[in-house]
Structures are given as structure tokens and as C-alpha cells.
Amino acid sequence: MKPIYMDHAATSPVREEVIDAMLPFMKEHFGNPSSIHQFGRRSRQALDESRRTIAQSIESSPEEIIFTSGGTEADNLALIGYAEANQGKGKHIITTQIEHHAILHTCERLENMGYDVTYLPVSEEGLVSVQEIESSLREDTILVSIMYGNNEVGTLQPIEEIGALLREKEVAFHTDAVQVYGLLPLTMKTLPVDMLSVSSHKINGPKGTGFLYVRNGINISPTVTGGEQERKRRAGTENVPSIVGFAKAAELAVKEQEERWNKYRQLTDLFLDRLEEKKVRRYINGNRKKSLPHILNLSFPKINVESMLVNLDLAGIAASSGSACTAGSIEPSHVLAAMYGEGEKLYSSIRFSLGYGNSVEEIEHVTEELKKVTERLSAQAE
């Protein structure tokens, strides 16, 4: 059987339709969109059309979309850009302990710049308490940043409830929606969010591009300076081929949104059913009822996660772990550590994330291989 890819939350394969849309802007229409001649005007037209498509995908205005190099830059721009532009109002920021490192490391940077950051805990399901957010607000709180859907366990936060609270308190709200975009409808006309980050390569678009939605009226300072691109909010010649590809991927993702959600939920349900039938010992990390459908984080008791990932890879199956092995020492996932504190789950958990192209046949094969691998590794551990 050909290799099976179940690491779509890390990155996803680029669809043929996306590649076809990009090629003309690599081969023929290579002009700089800031140039006034016909070559530049053709690229500018494509850029403007792509911006409209992206804006329509979240029901926003085109001028509220800032193209970036991806989700990480979008997160950086949201936090640093807003903090610098609004420091006169205060220097307190609130986030959670389970954010992507694009947020956490940026918050650490802001702390070094004199800002005060509160890192809120989460429950064992990975949920932040709205009441705890409210009690953490201060007179000098200027920004709250909370991930919409977690990239490791899939937990969905109560974004609408949080946003409603912050609108009432007049505190800006940013959410990293990288894992959610293309699976849940995002309507910025009604969603109480001021800034929202998205990445192209999680929805079968090219790597190296993304966007930050910034609601009209929200002021941010650019973190990349130079030219006057992106309405003076993000300097640098726009990556037109990738942006065109991103727009095509967004168009397809929105069109297939409900179909994708239902398919991934059915496949992950089948995954769990087959493991149950095969009597494979495992625990679900997170809450399936409040989770993204394509992310399944499982803990396999008494099994070394690095050994399991190597064995799965040898069997042609790609999955991932929140753990990173450096020079033989294992650093547990900060997400699982925030959820569970200490314990075996931190060192025995694997994330399977589904996406475009995965099938029932692949689920059957992967669960059968998991049975073999877990039995083999359990026997070795005894």
C-alpha cells in the first residue's frame, strides 16, 4: 500500500486546481504588482481578485485583509503590531498556556519589551474558562489572544462568548484560526473578533502565505517595514503566485466546508471504532464533542511515543507527536502539560490529523498497523 499521510494539521498537500491557478503567475504574469506598466497591472489585478475571494470567505471587506508569509507572521503582526500601536492604553495582554508557539514566543518577546502577559490555564479538556478571562481583565488590559481550535488536541474554544465579553469591556480580541479556517464558517460581520490569523498550507494551498484579518478601526503598527504594500501595514512585494493559489484553495475549502467536516468526523469515528474492536488500549486527549473533526490525539499507555512514530513511519504511516526529541531527551507537549500537569500521557501521545485524500481504506490499514505496533512495543516493554 502506498504511504499514508495523517499529519494534515502540520501541513497539507497542494491540490492540483491550486497548482494550475498558480502556474501562469510563475511562467507568464511575473510583474511586480506595485509597477504601473501592463506587467505590473496584470499582477495587481490578480492580487486584488484574490483579496476579494479571501475576504468573501470570511464575509469581511477586502481592505481588512493583510497578506502575510503565513500564520506565524500573522500572529506576530497581530500581537506586536497591536501592542506597539496601542501601548498608550496599557501594556497588559492575556492569552492561554496552550497557544501555538507563534503566540507564546511572541508574548515572551513582548514581556522582554516591558509588557505584562497573563497565561491562563485550561481544563483537562483543553478549555479556557470565560469567567477566568473576565477575572483576569485589568484597567491596562489592551489585548486578549486565544486560539480558536487547538492544533494538537483539536479543542474548540468558546470564541463567540469570549468575544462578546471583550466587546463589552472594550478590549481587543485576536484569535489564531489556522486549524479552523475551511472547516467552520467564519463570518466577521457577526463574529466578535478584531483580528484573525489564517495560513494557506493547512487548506491545501501553498506554503509561505497567509493573512491577518484586521477589523476596520483597529490600529496596528507594521512589523515588517519598507515599502507601502498592504496599505502600509506589511511591507514587501506580495507573493502573487502563492496568494493566487491561496485564494483558489480558500474557494474550494469554503465550497466543500460542510462536506469536509462530516467526512473527517466520520473517519475519526471509524478510527476509534476500529481501535475499540481490535482492543487497542488508548485514551482520547481532549473532548470529542468540543473538538475539530480532523484532529485525533491519542495516548497509548506504557508505549514510548518516539518508538511508535518510528515504527509507524517504517510501515508507511505519517503521524506526529507534541513531543520533541533532542539529543535523547524528550520534552513533553506544552499543550498536554497544561491539560494534565504531569503523567504518562505527556510521553505516550500521538496526533493523527486527517485531510484531503484520506479514505476509509486508509483508516482500516492504519488501525490494523497500530494494533501490530502497540502489541510489539508492549511486549518489548515487559
UniProtKB/TrEMBL annotation:
Matches recorded under InterPro entries: Aminotrans_V_dom (IPR000192), Aminotrans_V_PyrdxlP_BS (IPR020578), Cysteine_dSase (IPR016454), PyrdxlP-dep_Trfase (IPR015424), PyrdxlP-dep_Trfase_major (IPR015421), PyrdxlP-dep_Trfase_small (IPR015422)
Domain Aminotransferase class V: 4-365
Swiss-Prot/TrEMBL catalytic activity: (sulfur carrier)-H + L-cysteine = (sulfur carrier)-SH + L-alanine
Cofactor: pyridoxal 5'-phosphate
Taxonomic superkingdom: Bacteria
EC number(s) from the headed UniProt entry: 2.8.1.7
Cross-referenced SUPFAM superfamilies: PLP-dependent transferases (SSF53383)
Keyword line: Iron, Iron-sulfur, Metal-binding, Pyridoxal phosphate, Transferase
Family: Belongs to the class-V pyridoxal-phosphate-dependent aminotransferase family. NifS/IscS subfamily.
PANTHER family linked to this entry: CYSTEINE DESULFURASE, CYSTEINE DESULFURYLASE FAMILY MEMBER
Protein's recorded name: cysteine desulfurase
